[in-house]
Amino acid sequence: MFLPKIDLKTGERGILFLTLPEWRFAKENLFFKKHFSFLNLTIKYDERGFICGPVLGAPMLGLLFEVFNHWSLKELLTIGWAAKLGETLKIGDLFLPIKAYSLEGTSRLYLGKTKVFKPEQSFFIKIKENLIQTGLIPSLGSIVSVDAPFIFEKNTQLIKKWKTKVCALDMETSAVFSLGKYFNLKTQPILFITDEVGKLINQRPEKLLRPQREKLLNFLKKFLNHEF
Questions:
Q1: Cis link prior to 4 (omega < 30° from 0)?
Q2: Considering the chain, what is the average pLDDT of its residues?
Q3: Do 226 and 48 contact (CB within 8 A), yes or no?
Q4: What is the pTM of this model?
């Protein structure tokens, strides 16, 4: 399979924005000297590091990690949305996954039968402590990642089963952790809880997320500037 070698001169830290609203907010508020387009993605970068988005789903992450393998990247954050499963979380929470179960196909192709993934502990602690110092108190818990969330939501037996194991659902976290392990990168997803599994919500969550977004922006600037 053809994969172009994209050799950008950038730093050791990067941030992937998984949803279009978070990417739009980021590119308007995080400033870089250069930009590059790849497939339907935009990469903004300089000597500090890079931001990239929007990235949806585990397969796209797999492709990007193959590209990153040629860079000097060592630490990667992903910023996205997740749905709460059960009553542990509430909509609007900032969520740090501490364990991810994989029901997506990308992790299986990279790491075989492994189905449960965790962050690199020292990186997780650094991210959590600096979020708190920025004024953000993240909720912690387990998550399950799937390729087809709408099918999952229609299966009451699946929902009942996974409510006993996890408190959230998304499409990427398990792949973020598994690809980080495979490529020897420190990775940590940071997620906004925007909806609830099994409940149809038509109202967009941006207004609810605005106060946390502003604080998170300050945290991301410090991360990219290597202030911690």
A1: no
A2: 94
A3: yes
A4: 0.95
